[in-house]
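A further point concerns the way the authors explain their paired sequence and structure data. The central task, working out the structure tokens from the amino acid sequence alone, is never made concrete. I therefore recommend that a typical entry be quoted early in the introduction. An entry of this sort, consisting of the sequence and the corresponding backbone structure tokens, reads as follows:
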Amino acid sequence: MIGRRSKYWAGGLGVLLLLATPRAEAVPSHVPAAGSVREAVAVSLQASAARSTALDLPDDWDWAASGEMAPDDGKKSVLRAVASSAVLPGLGESYLEHPNRAKLFWTIEGVIWSSFAFYRIQAERRQDQQIEYASLESGAPTDGDADYYEHIGLWISIEEWYDIVRRDARYTYPDDPAAQDAYFEQNKRYGSGDAWSWPSDSERLQYRRLRSRAERSFRNARAAAGAALFNRLGSMIHSLALGRNYNHHVEQARLELRVQPIDSVDGLVIGPVLTSRY
């Protein structure tokens, strides 16, 4: 008996709560496939205003009664912020209203490209000094390629290089002089116009030091260019995080509870509504 009576009390209490609870009316709207939520709400409220012109809507819903688009929701385009940072680090931060962080990325970018220009100019100047030194001290031409200027620092003269090639030819074809000659002609690489001859090893070593300095400057220039790439990547990731955080705060700020008319199948009713524009 106690169990059955408890069941009746629970059922009756549920009915009372159901009757006492205010009805939450859904806003009927027909959302077109290519339209937006704001457009659908505007159409629905415009129809409601036509049926009940005597009821004044709040000021911030005038756009709905007129059938116009809602005001800008205040969000920022994350894609635009990331793309801007890819073009120039700091542009995305500036677009997302973080001027100090934008200035930081601009400063880093300026330092990077200033370093690149400095090292590139230094490398070319040192390379010119290296070639000029080789021409004066060994008689090397000034129009050789990178491999040529590396080779003249390894061997005292072109004849020493020729001896290396002839030795390889004898080792490869020990019993075939014709094949040795063919091998030599194929691998000697340089002709008489490319001849060089260092007075001694001291001049050759000095040339190698000059070449090493030029190569170091070229490496520093390449490192600066790589740093510019990483700076862009860092700014893009940073803009992505800032954009998401910015839009998250906008969504939270536009969540509000107010009393407003709601269009229902039974007519217009007044009730509390929690709204969020997005």
Notes: The chain is about 65% helix and 5% strand.
